[in-house]
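Researcher: Let's do a round of design. I'm pasting the structure tokens now; please hold your answer until I've finished.
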């Protein structure tokens, strides 16, 4: 027993140590994984140091071979990583620009564009994606990078500007750049032949349709036999290139002059990604699916040990898990096909037996040449369920606390649905059993009956990521599937409870606490349909849109004042920054329990309301979270607005964040407010919203909602769009967080 306790303590001490340097000791909680991961890159100096990126702006580093990961944030999606071949602590990452860390990935400085050239940051209106605006900007977007193996000051970069690709070199650590050569297409990789003369390096440059060789200042390029989706290269004893494409896998023994097609066992295989060891290139790994063999269709990873002449299926799965694949919770909950075969592969330069594969929900590792594969995104907690290793790529909306069970918590997730913890957030398990299969993808919100133990409701949909425009830009909102589910055992099992409500994407559910037990009144915001009401514990529903004028209203959030007044937030439909048209968002209020609705005047210039909070002690004091319009460089008219007269008049109280997702009030102290948004910041106010300060320690690009921790007055949970749930103290001392370039400091 004592040894088991020590193991538990050591696991959580390790997790805490990863975030100990972060103000407020913020750490990520949840089951781990859950979203697409890319670019597994192993350090050539230490195979225990590995980097992984995701498409949700987070980047991750491990120094213990994947047992634990630390998220860092460079305010965008990483395109590639590169290690300095001489200095083990120097790492590069291309995100919104080229970044360099000289302390092993702890902090990062902008290399290109040059910080003095930065004129601002442009943000679009959907995800507030960032583009660094710089003058001069001769390179444009860097698509590939290589560092000279004998001189860390010499960098070779392939870059694209105005649709023209070129090769550049810097001999002063990236301060200045010289254009060397026009390239035939965008380049995805650069490799340096370490045996070539130092003053006249030979470079191999790979694009989708060509392999270029730059030697003695001259460029020669060879066409590829297909459009490559992935290319990898090694140099011992001879240059070897592997590539994948829609037409299959290929290998070249002469640096791209000619290619031979690879043959896998079986027929019909589609290959996705390939990777080799730079120093041991006779070994390579190839991701495949749709392979027909022995009457079954397989997916996984094939391996060659003889430079592509023959391949074995090192990872081979169909609908049944393979004995040598040791996944965490994803296969257990959703089956083998949910994560699919790897999107990308990365092999250690110094050890061809070490390979990482990243897919739509996981990072998997083999350390024995493919004999076994192990999940490194999550682990089983001793005596509990699944807990994150720090490698989290999940979108979530709320954290909920069962009023009758102190340690029971819930997180509403996109892609993986509702998760439950029975041990105060230490470990997590899927909590969607009974939810219709076509609704399982996303749980947007859940609520409890405050008087009946075990009774709760959730709103679920097969459509995720609302209200982001990418979800409705090309699809009718009336085609969304989803609805309300009810649980009587504290979320362990659910039943559909949707009578009278057509299939929809419900994004919020609100319970009237004054309604009668056994006949609870509930309201649902149905995206694209409006507001639904139930007066019988959620068994039957009726549409209540009287007074709402928008066609197919994007009903998004609900709020209720202490005097019973209801509010509904209608999300904005337009994206171009225009205002005063049917695409505007809106806020409506009802004083007769949703029987009729009346518009609330929005602040001047605002047409993107996104969240609403009401002072529990003053029913007319409203706090509005607003999304910027696509106007100007950064967006305009977003932030937080305050009204003391029920929305008749407003004043803006926070404008440093133009893309605020939501505003919340501490239920223990109505003077204490919180907010978060898509500009790498979370905020707090201690004077009823009059003044705001940034919460130290939180810097994930896409923040959703700040939720006070009921167990601690000083701590909060922060839900995110792609970075799981952050938990920490609001009273941390400000300190450096990942980015050290002042012009791009989050929350500036």
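Researcher: That's everything. Go ahead.
Model: Designed sequence:
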């Amino acid at each position: 027993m004592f040894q088991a306790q020590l193991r538990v303590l050591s696991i959580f001490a390790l997790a805490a140590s990863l975030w100990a340097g972060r103000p407020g000791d913020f750490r990520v909680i949840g089951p781990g994984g859950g979203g697409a991961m890319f670019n597994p890159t192993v350090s050539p100096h230490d195979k225990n140091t590995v980097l992984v990126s995701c498409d949700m702006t987070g980047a991750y580093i491990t120094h213990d071979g994947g047992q634990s990961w630390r998220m860092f944030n460079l305010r965008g999606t990483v395109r590639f990583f590169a290690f300095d071949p001489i200095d083990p602590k120097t790492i590069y990452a291309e995100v919104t620009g080229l970044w360099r860390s000289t302390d092993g990935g702890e902090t990062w400085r902008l290399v290109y564009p040059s910080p003095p050239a930065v004129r601002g940051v442009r943000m679009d209106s959907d995800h507030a994606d960032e583009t660094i605006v710089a003058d001069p900007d001769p390179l444009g977007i860097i698509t590939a990078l290589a560092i000279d193996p004998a001189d860390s000051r010499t960098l070779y970069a392939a870059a694209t500007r105005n649709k023209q690709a070129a090769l550049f070199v810097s001999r002063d650590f990236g301060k200045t750049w010289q254009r060397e050569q026009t390239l035939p297409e965008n380049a995805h990789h650069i490799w340096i032949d370490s045996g070539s003369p130092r003053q006249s390096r030979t470079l191999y440059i790979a694009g989708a349709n060509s392999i270029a060789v730059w030697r003695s200042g001259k460029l020669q390029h060879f066409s590829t036999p297909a459009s490559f989706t992935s290319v990898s290269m090694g140099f011992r004893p001879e240059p070897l290139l592997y590539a994948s494409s829609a037409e299959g896998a290929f290998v070249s023994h002469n640096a791209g002059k000619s290619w031979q097609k690879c043959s896998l066992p079986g027929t019909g295989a589609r290959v996705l990604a390939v990777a080799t060891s730079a120093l041991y290139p006779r070994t390579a790994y190839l991701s495949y699916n749709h392979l027909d063999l022995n009457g079954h269709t397989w997916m996984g990873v094939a391996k060659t040990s003889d430079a592509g002449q023959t391949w074995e299926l090192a990872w081979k799965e169909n609908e049944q898990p393979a004995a040598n694949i040791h996944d965490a919770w994803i296969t257990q909950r959703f089956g083998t096909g949910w994560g699919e075969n790897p999107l990308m592969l990365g092999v250690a330069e110094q050890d061809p037996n070490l390979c990482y594969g990243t897919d739509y929900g996981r990072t998997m590792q083999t350390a024995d040449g493919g004999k076994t594969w192990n999940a490194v995104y999550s682990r089983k907690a001793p005596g509990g369920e699944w807990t994150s290793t720090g490698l989290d790529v999940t979108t979530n909306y709320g954290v909920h606390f069962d009023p009758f069970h102190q340690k029971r918590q819930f997180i509403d997730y996109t892609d993986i649905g509702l998760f439950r913890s029975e041990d105060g957030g230490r470990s997590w398990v899927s909590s969607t059993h009974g939810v219709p299969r076509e609704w399982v993808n996303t749980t947007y919100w859940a609520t409890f009956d405050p008087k009946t133990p075990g009774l709760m409701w959730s709103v679920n949909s097969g459509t995720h990521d609302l209200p982001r425009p990418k979800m409705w830009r090309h699809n009718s909102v009336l085609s969304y599937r989803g609805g309300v589910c009810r649980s009587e055992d504290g979320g362990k099992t659910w039943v559909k409870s949707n009578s009278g409500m057509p299939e929809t994407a419900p994004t919020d559910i609100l319970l009237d606490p004054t309604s009668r037990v056994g006949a609870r009144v509930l309201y649902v915001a149905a995206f694209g349909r409006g507001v639904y009401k139930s007066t019988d514990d959620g068994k039957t529903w009726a549409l209540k849109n009287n007074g709402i004028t928008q066609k197919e209203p994007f009903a998004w959030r609900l709020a209720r004042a202490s005097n019973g007044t209801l509010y509904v937030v209608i999300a904005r439909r337009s994206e171009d920054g225009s205002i005063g048209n049917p695409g505007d968002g809106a806020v409506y209020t009802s004083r007769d329990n949703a029987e009729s609705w009346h518009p609330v005047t929005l602040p001047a210039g605002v047409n993107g309301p996104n969240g609403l909070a009401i002072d529990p002690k003053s029913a007319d004091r409203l706090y509005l979270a607003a999304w910027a319009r696509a106007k100007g460089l950064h967006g305009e008219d977003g932030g937080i607005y305050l009204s003391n007269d029920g929305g008749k008049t407003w004043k803006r109280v926070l404008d440093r964040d133009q893309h605020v997702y939501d505003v919340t009030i501490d239920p223990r102290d109505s003077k204490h407010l919180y907010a978060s948004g898509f500009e790498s910041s979370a905020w707090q106010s201690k004077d009823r919203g009059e003044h705001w300060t940034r919460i130290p320690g939180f810097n994930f690009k896409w923040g959703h909602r700040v939720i006070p921790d009921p167990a601690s007055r000083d701590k909060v949970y922060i839900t995110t769009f792609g970075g799981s749930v952050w938990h920490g103290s609001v009273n941390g001392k400000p300190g450096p967080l990942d980015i050290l370039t002042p012009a791009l400091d989050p929350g500036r």
